[in-house]
Amino acid sequence: MEIIKNREDNNFEVAIIGRLDTVSSPQLQSELEEIIPEAENITLDLRELEYISSAGLRVILLLKKAMDQKGNLVLKNVSDTVISILEVTGFSTILNIEPIQEDHEGTEDGSEG
Amino acid sequence: MEIQQSKSLKRKIFNGTVQISIIVMLIVGLLNYMQISSSIRTLYFDTVERNAATMAILMDSEDVVFLRENVLKTMAESGPRDPENDAYAYIQETEQYKRVVELLNRVCAEERSSFMTLVIADNENMRFIYLADADAFGLSSNHVSFPGDVYAMSEAEKASLEENETFLPAYFYEYEERGHTVILYSAGRAVLAFDGFSVLAYAIADLRAENIAKRIWPVILGNLAIMAGTILFLAIAVVIMGNLHVIEPLNKLSKAARQFITDRKNSKHNEVAYFKALGIKTQDELEQLARSMSTMEKDLNNYETEIVALTKDKERIRTELSLARNIQHDTLPTTFPPFPERKDIDIYAIIDPAREVGGDFYDLFLIDENHLALVVADVSGKGIPAALFMMVSKILINTTCRASLSPAEVLSRVNQLLCENNKEEMFVTVWLAIVDLSSGEVRYANAGHENPLICRNGEWSYITTRHGLVLSALEGMQYTDYTLQLNDGDWLFQYSDGIPEAANVNNELFGDERLLESCRKAAMDSTAGFLRSIQNDIDEFVGEAEQFDDITMLAYRFRKKEGSDNGNN
């Protein structure tokens, strides 16, 4: 897993690349703990997130709880795979999720099925 | 063993000393011999030359002239002396001859020379001609020569005389005499005429010497014997000192080390400091060694204590884990059928944890005569923490169900209870269904768990309703009840995410589609057989790959109660 952080004032954008599982979650947690004290808004860019396990969900839950008290948390560019995991686990009910912007072709058609 | 070793060390020191000493002795002895023999030879040369010189000076030149003239005259007349017919016999009667022999004899006796002769050199004929001869000790009387005798001149003597006619340099030669090797040193000096230039004759001195080696060796051997004695003494001293200062402390160390090992092997280890107790204070490498051994002993003891503690801990943890596994397993209803007297309840469940203890669980219990609760749940994480959280969750759900027939309400309450003390931020996915056994109506709520499958009229499909958030994630979450209707012979199948996420060696996942296919082709004679068929499919798919997650499944077949046909239809 790879983490890329960008900062604009107190707005952070964190891109998570690869698999977020038991092995890689502690790394994400410690990276997030560094920026949470200064952050007003955090956006997680999940375009290249392949998989998220319960350990990964736990880190996002901790982040959400922290940000509820001081700002916003948005998950953007969330792929169908990850969305289905978030839906099954019910995390979609508490998180602000922006699905991935498909490149023209698969925009509206496939999603209904 | 100890004695042999120390002996060998002592012997090595002793042998080494002796061997080196013998070599040194031989070299010293040889040098000694060469030096002594060379100086003795010089002494002999010196003596024999001085004897010749003395003789030449003492000679009365008139007597020599007389002898010389008469011998030369006779030589010219009748050649060298013939003992049978001695033409020179008259010379021996002369006073001059007698005086010369007398002188020769006296000098011989005085100088302890063996021979003294007076000769003249006949360079042309390469020979010496005797004028007179004396044999002081008569040792070689058969060699006594008389005037007119001749003997051959060597090339070396001729060359020497041509270079300087006043003397014949000393030389030595060996000859056999009565079975002994005798060395004869010889030198000659010219007897000069009154004019001080012309050579009249040569006084030749011969010095008999025993073989020098014969005389030197006893001396050298004596010296060597003294040396050998000294060396032996030194070697013994070295061994004794070495024994005292090196071997004894070494033996002590070695003995202590052996004791240390033996005690350790027999677990008779006590608090004795084996090496420190030796008190080796030699202030050298040995003390250093003893100190190192002492440190090593301390380290070993500490290490052993640690290892013992660790092993104990490990053993204890293993025992406790095994106990925990039993306890966890015992909390699950594993006897099937669970309600033997209730022929209408056809249910089966399988759990296969990835580790000793797992986070998955299922539950099935009768809330009352008419209501059966079904639970399938999955705690985040694995191992002991997950197992503890699982126990709490299971008991809370079971207990709360007694107070409410609404799964949503049960989940909301349990969520609240779990959130109150959840610093570790663990959570649990729960599917809870409550079946009305008389009507077949199922109320269920889903807190973040997998979608169950339903089989209606022999057709399998997923039930996809909106899921609530996993339990214990956020306080105050509200869950929603959904209902569905089961008819006689309809099935419900719920499982944990270990099934769709079971991976094979190529990292492919089993997935929802395969699971659906598996359900469709499975024989549906019994709930137990159905689950085993699904399990076989998963095992076949996974193959050699390791099982990462717990696998849990529960199958329920609704059987309409006899005589309660008044339900839904």
State the gist of this model.
The complex is a heterodimer of chains A (113) and B (569). Chain A has 113 residues and is α/β, with parallel strands linked by helices.
Descriptive report:
The complex is a heterodimer of chains A (113) and B (569). Helices cover 31% and strands 33% of the residues of chain A. With 113 residues, chain A is of the alpha/beta class. Chain A has a single domain, classed as 2-Layer Sandwich (Transcription Regulator spoIIAA), CATH 3.30.750.24. In chain A, strands 1, 2, 3, 4, 5 and 6 form a 6-stranded mixed sheet that branches. The radius of gyration of chain B is 64 Å and the shape is rod-shaped. Helices cover 47% and strands 22% of the residues of chain B. With 569 residues, chain B is of the alpha+beta class. Mean pLDDT of chain B is 86; it is low at 565-569. The chains are: A alpha/beta (113), B alpha+beta (569). Chains A and B meet through α2 of A and loops of B.
Question: Topology, pairings included?
Answer:
The complex is a heterodimer of chains A (113) and B (569).
Chain A: E1 2-8, E2 11-20, H1 25-35, E3 41-45, E4 49-52, H2 54-68, E5 72-78, H3 80-88, E6 96-99
Parallel strand pairs in A: 2-3, 2-4, 3-5, 5-6
Antiparallel strand pairs in A: 1-2
Chain B: H1 2-58, H2 61-78, H3 89-92, H4 95-111, E1 115-122, E2 127-135, E3 150-152, H5 155-163, E4 167-177, E5 180-192, E6 199-210, H6 212-265, H7 285-331, E7 345-352, E8 360-368, E9 371-379, H8 383-401, H9 407-420, E10 428-436, E11 441-447, E12 453-456, E13 459-462, E14 482-485, E15 491-495, H10 511-521, H11 527-542, E16 551-558
Antiparallel strand pairs in B: 1-2, 1-6, 2-3, 4-5, 5-6, 7-16, 8-9, 9-10, 10-11, 11-14, 12-13, 12-15, 15-16
Helix pairs in contact in B: 1-4, 1-6, 2-4, 8-9
- The CATH architecture classification of chain A is 2-Layer Sandwich
How many separate helices of chain B? 11
Determine the CATH superfamily of the largest domain in chain B: PPM-type phosphatase domain
Number of strands of chain B: 16
Roughly how many Å apart are the termini of chain A?
31 Å
Give the class-level CATH name of chain A.
Alpha Beta
Classified in CATH, the superfamily of chain A is STAS domain
Query: How many angstroms does the end-to-end distance of chain B come to?
Result: 99 Å
Please report the total strand number of chain A as a whole number. Answer: 6
**Strand order of the biggest β-sheet of chain B:** 3-2-1-6-5-4
Query: Which structural class do the helices and strands of chain B define?
Result: alpha+beta
Nearest-integer average pLDDT of chain A: 85
Unreliable residue stretches of chain B? 565-569
Helix content of chain B: 40-55%
